[in-house]
Amino acid sequence: MMLRQELLAAGGETTPIYVRLAALLREKVQQGEFAVGDALPSERDIAERMAVSRVTVRNAIDLLMREGVLSRRHGSGTYVAPRIEQPSSILAGFTEDLRRRGLVAGSVWLEKTIDTATPDEVIAFGLAVTARVQRFRRIRTANGEPLALEHAVVPETLLPEHDSVTDSLYAALDRIGNKPVTGLQRVTASLATEAESGHLGVDEGAAVLRIERRAYMADGTMVELTRSAYRGDRYDFISELRAL
Amino acid sequence: MMLRQELLAAGGETTPIYVRLAALLREKVQQGEFAVGDALPSERDIAERMAVSRVTVRNAIDLLMREGVLSRRHGSGTYVAPRIEQPSSILAGFTEDLRRRGLVAGSVWLEKTIDTATPDEVIAFGLAVTARVQRFRRIRTANGEPLALEHAVVPETLLPEHDSVTDSLYAALDRIGNKPVTGLQRVTASLATEAESGHLGVDEGAAVLRIERRAYMADGTMVELTRSAYRGDRYDFISELRAL
DNA sequence: AAGTGGTCTAGACCACTTC
DNA sequence: AAGTGGTCTAGACCACTTA
Q1: pLDDT string in tens for chain A (244-residue length)
Q2: Chain A CA closest to residue B232
Q3: CATH number of the domain where residue A175 is located
């Protein structure tokens, strides 16, 4: 069953219809109403039943395809995709990364301040030495369990109000039009320090995955420098490789 | 300049217009006709000049956004995205990876055999339970110093002679036309086991970066399953990220 | 206020799969 | 032959950026 009413209820008034429709379909897949390998109703069917245009249905399905939830076969139908590990070489904040893994992201704040930039931050961002930055330090949780220690830094000029960051930094950046579009990430392995082990709930000397990320806006401006330490026993980083 | 004629010439008759338009725009960006940071003509402009609908223009731009060539800013324009140097999200074997880092790769062989596939290898490759595989186990060195412990597995059907592998597995696969073109890589952090620590020259319990790679040929056949343990103090994995 | 991208509609025809 | 996704058109209004 799928009703127009469910669609309208699925989001705020300003949420685009295709996003709401995608949310509705995603939910039905997750709840098992459409099983893996099943065909969805045809695009024309969905369009008629939900009283939207076929283009809107396609936009919704496009979204879910990019998320890896659905797959289309020309002339045949649209199917629920087998759950394949999503390469995380897409640029996503912690919140979205975890949503893709089927987990709920949370935060325990340790610091949320405006601070003068450290020397290496000045260099990384290309700032004036007197420049100030927003500093966000928190324990990131997955389904309530500590997963990572995160320290994100954004120049004050690109994110003036830190109150806007409640849970997702990327959502806040998106709202003011400073969303990053590309990034570079360096992954290393090392051992948890004493302070880290306390926050992450692991022994001192446990394996952690250290990730340093630099994210850039469309015009090449660097927006974000984030250094994180992930629990080695609970997190992996999957990336897609291509031959030249 | 941009002409309808260029568009029609850009591909075979059956090639969709939006694909041809994307190819045309990609070319202009590569040739520097649109420089990095520049705004493209507006979607309406392009649509009118090329005598196509705006939806078609958007489809073309969507394609190029997914390739990382362009990026859009709502209310502002469509821009040429900053080019980010492609780091190690390219599929390369150990030898080439190190060459790119300015190091010389070497090997200390531990095992080079034809063996029956283990159960998880049977599943991973989709082989018959009686199938045999080439098994390559070695200590990989960088400028003579131990860097990683590597265990590569290739189905015998795809690499009949193991003598052909002297130093670079990828070079050997290339010679018989079974070169991988895409791969999936999973990176985790953990601690060195006793056996590993001996081979790598580190203490037991030192941090190691574990990398599991699955590489595929153009037709989707999986060629290689390699599990490696890299010294955490000497190796990092850098990847490029892109927004959807 | 003008121009841009973001969303949406109601149709149409084509290419492909399935029966 | 019927049904599916793939492409395309010509318009419309909204949200946002820029000046």
Answers
A1: 566 667 666 666 678 899 889 989 988 888 888 877 778 899 999 999 999 999 999 999 988 887 778 888 888 888 887 665 556 667 788 888 887 787 888 999 999 999 998 888 887 887 777 888 999 999 999 999 999 999 999 988 888 776 667 778 888 887 777 888 788 888 999 999 999 999 999 999 999 999 999 888 766 678 899 999 999 999 998 887 766 6
A2: A189
A3: 3.40.1410.10
B156, B131 contact by CB (below 8 A) = yes
Residue whose structure tokens are 């190190």: B98
Residues A63 and A105 grouped into a single domain: no
Domain span including residue B133: 84-238
C-alpha distances out from residue A102 to B24, B186, B242, Å: 39, 18, 21
Cα gap A94→A98, rounded to integer Å? 6
Nearest-CA residue of chain A relative to B229?
Answer: A189
Considering only CB atoms, B184 lies closest to which of A179, A240, A243, namely A240
- Which nucleotides along chain D are within 7 A of a protein C-beta? 3-12, 15-18
* A41 and A74 share one domain: yes
Q: pTM to 2 decimals?
A: 0.74
